[in-house]
Amino acid sequence: MENSSRCVRCDNCLHELCMYKVPLFSHLDRAELEEMACKMIPKYYEKGEIILHAGTTPNGITVISMGSAKAVTYTADGREQILYLFSQNDYFGDRFLFSDEKSTFTVEALQNTSTCTLLKADFQELVAKYPNIAIQVIGSLSSRVAHLESALQNMGSRSAEVRISSLILEYIDMYGSPTKEGTLITLPLSREGIANYLGIARETLSRKLSQLEGVGILKSEGNKSILIKNIEALKSLSHG
Amino acid sequence: MENSSRCVRCDNCLHELCMYKVPLFSHLDRAELEEMACKMIPKYYEKGEIILHAGTTPNGITVISMGSAKAVTYTADGREQILYLFSQNDYFGDRFLFSDEKSTFTVEALQNTSTCTLLKADFQELVAKYPNIAIQVIGSLSSRVAHLESALQNMGSRSAEVRISSLILEYIDMYGSPTKEGTLITLPLSREGIANYLGIARETLSRKLSQLEGVGILKSEGNKSILIKNIEALKSLSHG
DNA sequence: CGGACCATTGATAATTGTCAAAATTCGTGG
DNA sequence: CCACGAATTTTGACAATTATCAATGGTCCG
After folding, report:
1. How far apart, in whole angstroms, are the C-alpha atoms of residue A133 and residue A170?
2. CA-to-CA distance for A24 and A20, rounded, in angstroms?
3. What is the DSSP string of A151-203?
4. pLDDT tens digits for B131-189?
5. Contacts of B77 in chain A (CB under 8 A)
6. Would you state the pLDDT for residue A4?
7. Which of residues 81-140 of B touch strand D (CB under 7 A)?
8. Which of B35, B85, B199, B211 is buried deepest, with most CB atoms within 10 A?
9. What's the rounded Cα separation, in Å, for the pair B210 and B215?
């Protein structure tokens, strides 16, 4: 307690420690969390600002404490390919904690966004002190691998319709809330963003969504949300 | 030494310890390696046999000590999507070491293949004893993440030509050997396999390769190798 | 040498990308 | 709260690419 009062707390976290909600740190006890919190470096980015530049070496592990961000690379034919979408309490940089590799992706704020960064050296110290954290890191990387494998599997479908259906189903779980008329998804990305994530043209996405709307499966509600009216139909589409 | 003579050595490894060449274990000293070698379970698979079934929980970390294998999932539209290609000294299962998740992919032997498996429990014991191994696992997962990110980036190119060029360039580094007339690649996969890795139709791959042969960039040498005659041209193709 | 397997080629259809224009949506400032 | 302008999205028409199906040709291994 005394210890923590000596710290400059992360301003973004109000009266809570933001790390508390980060799975990576969830097995630490209060004291350990506070010890770490002291070392977190807070930062603020406007929408559109770059949080991490491709080609540079990340200086630690960065938690999105507020807002959201996308990790993008550019495909050989010059298009933007979104690799990850980071929402509140997601983090990146774990892959660089024990290596000096340069990042191949750029991270850009999708909204006004606050981050907390724990420097590599501090993290390594922490790992030395609490070896269990290494196991947590392994778990974290494992689920990142799982996510990428499934994204890759999805990209393997030649048909745009299948890819779109799968992504919507994923979004239902992550960003959906039930209403009387169906499940309302608050989209984390613009149409263009979704298209760039799926590796298809924005126009193709538009067309397919209109088509799905035409047969009553869903309904676009402005640019930022979609109402899903028939999940079962989506599921059968996503299966080929 | 006495210790090791009490072990049943892995038959596949002849007089060498196969783990010696596995990066994951390369930081262990001889004694540690031998200790671990005692616990490795060797197994042999004919070409086409399944080493790991999707939907089952891997029992440990499996090293390909001889031969090769592919890790595949099936896309929503029923096609085979190759996620990984494992050659000698590659391994899989690291992602399941500290979780009970089921594998989403199936691993199938591409040739007659020998493996050595270290059971989860034994691995965990090893990690407890030599905590540095956890760091090695982190490194191993990190490079797996890097590989997947780049594969995803590649799948984002809408054009088949670009994807093919990128893959060939990758193969040059991994399976190529210089000759007088150019770089000879001994292909690790059949045409169909390459197409399934790239997420395109086998016929499309054929056509593009013929086309590249037509302009003198490469030359198919039977079904199992390709001679690359103009790497620079390939590079510029792969950049869009 | 033969037969199974794999790869190539051709013709066609279906899908998707591209470019341009019109329509919507969104946020801002009055 | 409304209106306006910028940004985003949708739609249309067309071109380009790729998938599909079927037939042919080649390769590999016993």
Report:
1. 29
2. 9
3. HHHHHH-S-HHHHHHHHHHHHHHHHEEEETTEEEEE-SS-HHHHHHHHTS-HH
4. 888 999 999 999 999 999 999 999 999 899 999 999 999 999 999 999 999 999 999 99
5. 157-159, 162, 240
6. 40
7. none
8. B199
9. 9
The tokens of B52 are what?
A: 């790991």
Task: Look at A74-83, B15-24, B220-229 and tell me which has the smallest mean pLDDT.
Answer: B15-24
| Tokens representing residue A112 in the block | 């006004």
Segment B144-147 long-range contacts (CB within 8 Å, at least 24 positions apart): B144/A145, B144/B94, B144/B95, B145/A95, B145/A141, B145/A144, B145/A145, B145/A148, B146/A95, B146/A101, B146/A104, B147/B84
pLDDT of residue A3: 41
Query: Which member of A75, A131, A145 has the closest CB to residue B153?
Result: A75
Q: What integer is the mean pLDDT of A203-212?
A: 98
Nearest to B138 among A105, A134, A239 (CB): A134
Query: Tokens standing for B38?
Result: 């005692």
**B7 pLDDT above the threshold of 70:** no
Residue ranges of alpha helices (H) inside chain A are 2-5, 30-37, 120-129, 132-156, 160-175, 191-198, 202-214, 231-238
Q: What percent of chain A stands above pLDDT 90?
A: 75
Which residue type sits at B182? G
Q: Find the range with the poorest average confidence among A111-125, B26-40, B88-102, B140-154.
A: B26-40
SS (H, E, C) B187-209: CCCCHHHHHHHHCCCHHHHHHHH
Q: Which residues on B lie below 8 Å from A139 (Cβ)?
A: 98-99
DSSP H or E stretch at residue B141: helix B132-155
The answer, as to whether pTM is greater than 0.85, is yes
CA gap B219, B217 in Å, rounded: 7
